[in-house]
């Protein structure tokens, strides 16, 4: 597409953007495909995976075409891949081995570990050679990562103060000439670091994915049960207890009323004892759907908490309600499977026989 450079001259360049699940791989493939021409390439992505892959493949393919990575998020970095490689050429060979086991998506989703835990494992030399070259330059990668997540990086030196109640940091009102958070740190953080700076004392990627697994059921004898897992949120305060082990918050069941399993941020759920609150509304005569809506809405209005629930009453009537952007849910009755993901979705599928 045509664009104008800083001198106002009209030039051609490729702009690549993709939001699909495997967008990182697709984008890099497109870069390699476009690199045979002389046009500059601009990759629009806020994903650190894309950044690592671009560095690796740009170097391995011996490319020389101008390649810029731009973040679509406000006040984020514009990175020149070629310049970055020239400054960090000694660690490029080891980027993929390091990323393979410390990447946020890989580790957080499957093992529930943060980057700090991964680095500790690497330092203990727990079979790291299985994933790639682990020579001296790799130790430099470890050192670089450790420096970014080290507790020795004192945020108060850069104009932030601790908010101990919410485990976060907030900006202080300092003179203009006071030290601020270094731009190079902000540029490397994928998450909303300006709002929750403490996160990158431990990780330098996004919060990662969280996912509670919950279930409610009624058996043939009328017994009602609920089950709720922990969502595995990263960067928890030491000693923090979430909603799952708290009776009435993460889940509650009563044969005479029904059962509820909840998902969301534990602090908000515990403040309103969401599961028990919904059963209270059912005790007062509300339907399972109405009671679930009332509970979720109250948590949002009272403590600004987003979340969701699955609920059931003694007759097997059920509800899946949430105030978040999405919540995957499914319910099975007789020979029909019900399921959905986004608000308003309700799909059905025949199971082909009794359950």
Automatic annotation (TrEMBL):
Q: For this chain's UniProt record, which GO biological process terms are given?
A: L-asparagine catabolic process via L-aspartate; proteolysis
**Which residues bear the site annotation Cleavage?**
211-212
The reaction(s) annotated as catalysed by this protein in its Swiss-Prot or TrEMBL entry are: Cleavage of a beta-linked Asp residue from the N-terminus of a polypeptide; L-asparagine + H2O = L-aspartate + NH4(+)
Q: Which UniProt keywords apply?
A: Autocatalytic cleavage, Hydrolase, Protease
The cross-references to SUPFAM superfamilies, in alphabetical order and at most eight, read: N-terminal nucleophile aminohydrolases (Ntn hydrolases)
Q: Does the keyword Glycoprotein apply?
A: no
Give the UniProt entry's GO cellular component terms.
cytoplasm
Catalytic residue positions: 212 (nucleophile)
Q: Which Gene3D superfamilies match?
A: (Glycosyl)asparaginase
Superkingdom per UniProt? Eukaryota
Glycoprotein in keyword set:
no
Q: EC number(s) of the enzyme? A: 3.4.19.5, 3.5.1.1
Q: Which GO terms describe its molecular function?
A: asparaginase activity; beta-aspartyl-peptidase activity
The family line of this record is:
Belongs to the Ntn-hydrolase family.
Q: What is this protein called?
A: Isoaspartyl peptidase/L-asparaginase
């Amino acid at each position: 597409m045509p664009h104008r450079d800083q001198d106002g001259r009209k030039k051609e360049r490729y702009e690549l953007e993709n939001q699909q699940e495997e967008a990182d791989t697709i984008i890099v493939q497109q870069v390699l495909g476009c690199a045979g021409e002389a046009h500059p390439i601009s990759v629009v992505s806020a994903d650190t995976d894309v950044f690592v892959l671009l560095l690796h493949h740009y170097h391995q393919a011996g490319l020389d075409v101008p390649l810029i990575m731009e973040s679509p998020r406000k006040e984020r970095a514009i990175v020149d891949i070629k310049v970055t490689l020239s400054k960090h050429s000694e660690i490029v060979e080891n980027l993929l081995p390091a990323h393979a086991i410390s990447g946020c998506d890989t580790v957080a989703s499957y093992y529930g570990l943060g980057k700090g835990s991964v680095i500790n494992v690497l330092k203990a030399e727990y079979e790291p050679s299985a994933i790639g070259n682990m020579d001296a330059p790799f130790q430099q990668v470890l050192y670089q990562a450790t420096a970014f997540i080290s507790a020795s990086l004192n945020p108060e030196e850069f104009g932030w103060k601790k908010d101990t109640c919410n485990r976060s940091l907030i900006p202080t009102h300092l003179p203009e000439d006071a030290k601020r958070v270094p731009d190079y740190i902000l540029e490397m953080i994928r998450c909303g670091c300006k709002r929750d700076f403490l996160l990158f004392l431990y990780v330098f990627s996004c919060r990662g994915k969280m996912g509670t697994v919950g279930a409610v059921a009624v058996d043939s004898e009328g017994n009602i049960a609920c089950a709720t897992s922990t969502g595995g949120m990263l960067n928890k305060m030491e000693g923090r207890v979430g909603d799952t082990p708290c009776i009435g918050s993460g889940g509650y069941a009563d044969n005479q009323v029904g059962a509820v399993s909840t998902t969301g941020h534990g602090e908000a759920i515990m403040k309103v004892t969401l599961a028990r609150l919904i059963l209270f509304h059912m005790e007062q005569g509300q339907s399972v759907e109405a009671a679930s809506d009332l509970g979720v809405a109250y948590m949002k209005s009272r403590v600004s908490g987003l979340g969701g629930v699955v609920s059931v009453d003694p007759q097997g009537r059920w509800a899946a309600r949430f105030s978040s952007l999405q919540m995957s849910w499914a319910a099975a009755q007789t020979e029909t499977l019900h399921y959905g993901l986004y608000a308003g979705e309700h799909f059905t599928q025949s199971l082909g026989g009794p359950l």
